[in-house]
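Many introductory courses stop at the sequence. We go one step further.
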Amino acid sequence: MDLLPVEIKVNIEGEVAAALSALRGAAGAMTTRRIWFAEDRNGVAEGRVPLLDSGVIVRFRMGGGSDDLTVKLRPCTREQLVGRFAATFETTPFTYRIEEDWSQDHRVLAASLTHDHPPGALSGAVEPGADTAAPIDAVQDQFLHACAPAVRLDGLAALGPILSTKVDDVPLGDLDVNLEAWSVADLEFLEASIRVKPKDEDAQEFTARAEHKQRKLEDAVRERGVTLSNHPENKTRRVLTALAQAVHS
């Protein structure tokens, strides 16, 4: 079985603006976007996130010159990725990725299908009362039907907006790091991430190299006076849970 790329993430909490400044230095331009997530309307009314609990994420990103809609399975298994979705592909306007997602000692498999859209094309779907599932196209629907057949995208509501500020390819030591800050309600998060791609190596060698890169990323963040978060839940779950509970209350 082919080796998969690994996306390695570290999360920072508290004084996000100062941490972003400390890590970013004089690196390139920041991109600002607004992010929404779709969730089951009935679940949200009860303060729950059943779609996320079933391992499905539906994300809208708008701004920064382009919009996109992503349907992601996380966590998932290689066995459930069947048919055309057993391997990555890229064909305009779609990008399909399969990769491991590492954060601290948590490692899961994720598969995501992103559809690029013209600016403004998705804005109607996140309006109050809109059919948030309407822009999910036939290929994304096929992806879910084939790989997560128990999940139904009926009666979705949009949660957001989350303000995203991102800087790509920031040099930290000899690493090229992507920084992304999220802000919504009273929550602020900063994530630093790198992607490690397999080379001509076996699984054991690749894992050892990725683990070395993970330690280097953590050390590079700490060396700039930034404290890593020890919270066990990722920022997507924390934000969606908080937004759903705000609707419920």
